[in-house]
Structures are given as C-alpha cells and as structure tokens.
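Let us practice reading a record.
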Amino acid sequence: MPRSRGRRKKPETTKIKLAPPVLEAFKQQREEFRKKFGREPGPNDPIFFDPDSDEPVQISGLRMEADIIAALNKAGAPPELAYAYKKTGLLSLGGDMSLWPREHVKEWQAAVAEYHLIEQARKERGAKPEDWHTEIPELLVSPSRRKTSITSEPA
C-alpha cells in the first residue's frame, strides 16, 4: 500500500494567554492533584477534581460553586462579585471583560446593578429580603450587610 504523499496535519490546538492569578490557580490545582493522587495529572484527568474522592473525578457543579464563593469571601472580594457569579455563572475577577461576548458582559453588569439596587433599597427603605423576588434568596438573607459574607453549601 503506498504511503500518503501529503504531510500529516498537526492536531489543532488553541493557545490562550492566562492572567497571572489564573495561571497560579492552575499550578496550585496541579500541585493539589499530585498531593492527593501521588502522580502527575494525565490528559483525561480533571483540572478541578473532587477532593473527597479516591479517584480523580470531576468536582460537582454545586461543590465548585461553593468553593468559588468561599474563595471570593476569603479573598475579600466585594459581595456584588459573588452575587453576579451566583446569578450568571460568570466570573470577572480583574474587571477585564474585553474578551467576553457582549451578551455576557450585559448579563454580568445587570447582575451587579441588581445587587446594588437591592442594597440601596435595603438601606433607604429598610426593605427585607422576603420583599424581594430573586432566583438567589440565600444571597439576600445575610444578617449583617455592613460586612457581607456570602455562602453556598455543597450538596
């Protein structure tokens, strides 16, 4: 059988430049993987794995959300970031959304604006969380709004 005369194409890859904090988070995940499983992660291993599992399996969405909310609180991030993340599933840490699709930017900005409107109404009118209709009631029931701590419980 004759060999193909054409060159084999290299598999397509996409390279993206990661912000230093994101790159550091990936390095930390790799180190956590090594500690947990005693080996380097393979190509089919999840980056974000369930720390309670004996095998490298993808972390659940609820656990990931809870961990992200906890990390935002620990980092002292403004509560509107956690609110917008919880509402949209998007996360903007440095404020640079230049690579986001326009509809994601609008969705994020609307969630942040909603958070501020809720806070303003609460201060001006003493509105209670039960007076508001939101898809994220656990974000509105914090007893102290001066120093907000937003939590999410894993399943």
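A brief commentary: Residues 68 and 82 are 8 Å apart (CA to CA).
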